[in-house]
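Would you mind writing out a protein's amino acid sequence and the numbers that encode its backbone to help me picture the idea?
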Amino acid sequence: MTRFNLHNAFIVNEWETDSWDVAPHRQNYFELIFIDKGKGIHRINDIAVPYKKGCVFLIAPEDKHSFEIEELTHFTNIRFTEL
């Protein structure tokens, strides 16, 4: 399984996509994910959670997650370490 590492203490990203090309993965950081528009399924630790505009997710370092996008989705995420 892929593991992503964050080498900065804090980073903010924003993007829009209609497909999720990243395999389910774990990471060494916390991540707040805001759904600004769109809908689909967010799989967190093998649990399917529907998402739509206004949803917010907190991903912990050992969580495994991925998205199944049904509509063009605009994401904003904040990645941060324990520092």
